[in-house]
Amino acid sequence: MMNGSNVANTTPNAKSKEDQVVNGRDEKENNPFAEYMWMENEEDFNRQVKERVEEELEEQEFLDRCFQEMLDEEDQDWFIPSRDLPQGIGQLQQQLSGLSVSDSHSSEDILSKSNLNPDAKEFIPGVKY
User: Fold this and answer.
1) Which positions ≥6 away from 31 have C-beta within 8 Å?
2) 10, 13, 29, 44: which has the fewest C-beta neighbours closer than 10 Å?
3) Which residues face 25 on adjacent strands?
4) What is the C-alpha separation between 65 and 88, in angstroms, rounded?
5) Rounded to whole angstroms, what are the CA distances from 82 to 86, 88, 93, 94?
6) What is the pLDDT tens value at each position of the chain, 129 positions in all?
7) What residues have CB less than 8 Å from 39, skipping those under 6 apart?
8) Are 85 and 93 a contacting pair, CB within 8 Å?
């Protein structure tokens, strides 16, 4: 039994299984191109993909620029003698590197002229004797 209140609650747009099947065929079979309908918006899809790819490329370029700036700043902070020292100091550095310690005095001569006490205890920092 249907009264007026039950009829008002039913929605006319709701499709039942019976509405979807017409003459033994379902909705997809009625439209032979149903499985190709996604191609209808292919241009929009391609445009969206292109925009995403362009955004990713721009982001990657931005990150590359930031990374290069960071490397450049790091290079400026490092001390590189050939770049950072004046020429006169560079020549002095070359002269100093050319110096060598000669062993003209034997170790016995040095010990005989020494003022150090050979019987002294070993020095240990922080320990008082």
Assistant:
1) 37
2) 13
3) 22
4) 37
5) 8, 11, 10, 11
6) 455 555 544 544 445 554 545 444 555 568 888 888 877 888 888 999 999 999 999 999 999 999 999 988 887 777 777 777 766 666 777 777 777 666 665 667 777 777 888 788 888 888 887
7) none
8) yes
CB 41 within 8 A of CB 49: no
Distance CA 68, CA 74 (A): 10
SS3 for the chain, per residue? CCCHHHHHHCCCCCCCHHHHCECCECHHHHCCCHHHHHHHHHHHHHHHHHHHHHHHHHHHHHHHHHHHHHHHHHHHHCCCHHHHCCHHHHHHHHHHHHCCCCCCCCHHHHHHCCCCCCCCCCCCCCCCC
φ/ψ region of 101 (left if φ > 0, alpha if ψ in -120 to 50, else beta) reads beta
How distant, in Å, are the alpha carbons of 20, 34, 98 from that of 10?
17, 29, 102
CA distances from 92 to 78, 87, 96, 97 (A): 21, 9, 6, 9
